[in-house]
Amino acid sequence: MTVEVGKKAPDFKLVDSKLKHKSLDDYKGSKTVLLFFPGAFTGVCTKELCTFRDSMSKYNNLKAKVVGISVDQPFSLAQFAKENNLTFDLLSDATREVSKKYDSLHENFVNVAGLTASKRSVFLLDGNGTVKFKWISEDPGKEPDYAGIEKELAKF
User: Fold this and answer.
1) Less crowded by CB within 10 Å, the N or C end of the chain?
2) Is 24 helix (H, G, I), strand (E, B) or coil?
3) For the segment 118-150, what is each residue's pLDDT rounded down to a tens digit?
4) Can you list the alpha helix ranges (DSSP code H) found in 1-155?
């Protein structure tokens, strides 16, 4: 499945860091920033998610919710959120199904056979769940264009 701009985002059902079930429907009615990231407690991911945390007033003004998704266990995500004061939802894609649906799964991550992680990706959805923008990086060390994401969100 390929996620296309202008099409509905693939639905999902995942568990958050508080073990609550979340689906795409939970974010309907708001712009949504879906952030797939390779791993909690890694340098680039920590920097990325803390950058989003520090920009939450901008996202709130743009009427957007931020949602982080990784293949980490919900318990790891809970500790990651606590240590970094992350107030937005972090969802566990432990089965890797959602990362696959969004074309955002690294196979043999960092050249380790069998190791998988979410690709660093950003999907911007409107209030109806339509994809308005997508960015998927093959390079886990590359951060998204934060100002560009805000600019894209302001367009809809």
Assistant:
1) N
2) helix
3) 999 999 999 999 999 999 999 999 999 999 999
4) 43-54, 56-61, 74-84, 97-101, 146-154
Domain contains 33: yes
CA end-to-end span of the chain: 25
Neighbouring C-alpha atoms within 13 Å toward the C-beta of 42: 16
Residue 95 C-beta-side C-alpha neighbours within 13 Å: 7
The verdict on residue 7 lying in a domain is no
For 5-75, list the strands marked E by DSSP.
13-16, 21-23, 31-36, 64-70
In this structure, is residue 4 part of a structural domain? no
From the candidates 45, 49, 64, 81, which is the catalytic residue?
Answer: 45
The two beta strands, 31-36 and 105-106, are unpaired
Domain enclosing residue 81, as ranges: 13-154
> Do 122 and 145 touch, CB atoms closer than 8 A?
no
Mean predicted confidence (pLDDT) in 74-95: 98
45 counts as catalytic: yes
Residue 3 lies in a domain: no
What is the CATH number for 123? 3.40.30.10
How many separate domains does the chain show?
A: 1
